[in-house]
Amino acid sequence: MSVPTVVVHRDADVLAKAVAARIITRLVDAQSAKGSASLVLTGGTVGIATLAAIRDTPARDAVDWRRLDIWWGDERFLPTGDPERNETGARQALLDHVDLDPERVHVMLGPDSGLSAEESADAYATELAKAARPEDHGAAPAFDVLLLGMGPDAHVASLFPGMPALYDTRAAVAVHGAPKPPPTRVSLTLPVIQGARQVWVVAAGEEKSGAVRLALSESGPVQVPAAGARGRGGTLFLLDRAAAGKIPPGLGRIASP
Questions:
Q1: Which tens digits make up the pLDDT trace of 183-236?
Q2: What's the sign of the alpha-carbon dihedral 71, 122, 136, 191?
Q3: Rounded Cα gap, residues 91 and 83, in angstroms
Q4: CA distance 15 to 46
Q5: 154-167 as b/e: b if 16+ CB within 10 A
Q6: Which of 234, 239, 192 is closest to 74 using CA atoms?
Q7: Residue 104 — φ and ψ, nearest 5°?
């Protein structure tokens, strides 16, 4: 796993715009190199603001959206169109505004599909396996960018401290009894996250500062899931100044005045 690089931006608004610019550059580079690209989305305030920033910049036209695969790191097990679903927020912020191939938008199914959370996770694992290539060396694609938010408890995706999903080696898993609502979710697992080419953890706000410090320490991922958020080729912690407030001096580099 890669050693994290920490980049600190002035505030959450600048952070979202900067992450958007990084995503566009990364996707264009990947498409130039191999013809297509893959992006794993996250929810949360900054995650959705980042997608809106992509929508609002003319630079978005540099991406060939028809040659992009969209995945999710986790999803709240709620019906299609529910405002609390990560998919719903992503569609409103960006996906409904660009020319995506619907077959390349890989959603985690909710209860309206007739599946249980376990069946939804199994279906997603099957979809991941179908998209994986031999050079990915795993049960899922080696995503070009895998975005993760992080909670004040250091959870990433829907992998919460001390919960059984952190020990799971399948590609996707059902989560029950999550400590924040809704309690039932579907999530990628740590092995899939760690198989991504690039993992970018995006966090803003003083309430995240303690979790950021732990995630960048020698903590284990069972109690600090974000400590296991590491990419195969690179890991970025993209923070605003408030979220970076408790990291050791000199660890992060300021990217905006």
A1: 999 999 999 999 999 999 999 999 999 999 999 998 899 999 999 999 999 999
A2: positive
A3: 11
A4: 8
A5: bbbbbbbbebebbe
A6: 192
A7: -105, 10
